[in-house]
Amino acid sequence: MTAAQQARPGLRALATAWLVSLVVLAPACRRRGARQPVVTPAPGSGASADAGPVPPSNPAAALAALTWDARPLDWTRPIPSTPPGGLAEAGYVGSAACAPCHAELTAMYARHSMARSGLRPLASLDQRWLAEIFDAGMKTWVRHQASGYGYRPVRRGKAYFIEEQLLGDYGVVLHSWLQPVTHTLSAGGYGLAFYFRHGDRLHHTPLDYFARARRWGLDPAASRSNPRFQTRLGDQCISCHADYPLRSAGAGDVFYDPLPTGIGCERCHGPGQRHSSTGAVADIVNPARLSPLRQLDTCTQCHQSSFAKQRAGRHDFSFRPGERADDFRVNYLAEPAEPDRLILLAHPERMVRSACYTGSAGRLTCTSCHDPHKSSFEQPPKHWDDKCTACHQAPGHTCTGDPAARAARQDHCVVCHMRPLAASDVPLVEITDHWIQRRPPPLRPGRREPPRRLVPWSTALGDPATGADLAGLELAAYADAGREDEALARAAAVLATWPPAPELYEWLVGYFGRAGDRASRSRAQAALLRVAPDGRSALLGYARGQLDQGTPAGHAEALHALDRLLALSPDDAGALETKAMVLFRDGDVTAARPLFEQAAAAGPSAAAARVGLAVLELRAGQRAPALRWLEEARRIEPTDDWLLDKLQRLYDEAKDSRRTLALAQLRNDLSRSGRKPGPTDATRWLPAAWR
Q1: How many domains does the chain have?
Q2: Which domain holds residue 176?
């Protein structure tokens, strides 16, 4: 029996270790839109106006009985190539091309927060202000209660950091990580998110600064599970914060300099190359000449509600002004509406629920009140009052509010009828509620309730959404909205048509994973790759699922998926690390070593790669580099018992009494604090012979 054959049964353990933490979730940052007058269910739902469909007696059995496509996946598809300097969107030339002819508008818009909402080096910010907020934040730790980690900003001269700590009883420091940060995302009017570059990627930290609240707090993406420093900036986030970046054709998280610093002219006006050459009005989109619905859709590409699902074949930069938003990404309206609770970016959804909107026969749009070229922060209160009184000045429209209460609010319309509220999904951000209500109810704290129904934005506004993938996207939206029962009720019937809806299969991969149904999860992973063949999470999840089978065929499929991912993204730390572990367990440690090295260089959280390099150095008798790799791995996984055991033995052998005692005390403190050391994915994969 060969070494590879002896090692292969261990592949099940390898994949199982990875799959414990592998749950494909709907992206957390998406925002979508909707409207009030909808009283009918979404098309094809089988729901009444007041309730969802009745689930079958055994939805899981109905799913298990499906006949899935068993044809082999095609691994011969061409690899998209990235041109030198990065892939650019065809026809886009950047806002600088607009300035010669539109100098006044360009100068005005440069002060708008949208023009500064992208990635900016910290060195480009007001250094006095930046130092002040970092120095103030150093006094208080922001705790992530579920994981036990704490975070605070740190400044050392002109260098800025986010520090992570894990504390035990009586404030004993069990772990510390000081991460330099170099970039910020967002304009700072409401908040700032902080990033650092590692290899070709920008990584997000769990700590944000909320400017209006003048407080540091957890980033919304870290409010539940804590990704620590693992989150990478991807297409989805940057697409709503900035102009079109130069990017990789195969990797959705690799962007090339210069990084876009904000939203530019072409996000609302479309590709400007032809217009900048001809100057012809017909060669550019002017949203003011679009229909009211298409004007709203231009804003809705970013200002959305929370249950949107990407269309098959579309990507985050593919919306073009003038098209229907739901043809790009289906934005689902949650019914019933919650007039006393709102989410961060649902401005269009809230506005179209207003009597002002319905009374305008759909003519009211965002630009009825907002000048898109001028920051709202620059407008005086009278500007907004005048917008209201332009319609509300006829008899019967006189304000009937209590004069004393009106005087206390300086008699401004917006303060009473569009009051500022804390967003339920980002409590430290206070936004203006665009659901214009005569007597708004008191704010109700907490997160929104699961909706009874979901309706596509376009359908809600009288322009019904269509498409072969619509039913599948709707199921994924129901699951994302906390109504997995609704999704399961119709899943078997919808899947019988196999709609080209990637997010449907992403939900199913997660559902089957949570249910412990490995066979169905594997089939869902294959179905996902049939409709989205080059998604990173799809390829990596499929590879790990195939390894979980522990068979030669599964092993071969896993390597196909990993090789495909590495062809698309040669420095993807997850793919490099996983392939290296597979080769290592197969006995080919020579081929595994350079992959481990590349993974460690590419990923700040690639603990398994560092463990692999450590054991290779120990086998070669190189203790100093082995210790360095082990200590780096322990920083990533501070409670891993194998790492602590191995370091303890090495410190003992080196007669390093100081570090031996310190580590022994650390282990004692971990146990006393309820964080008893245990196995992690960083070391579970190691064969017994290498432990």
Answers
A1: 1
A2: 95-264
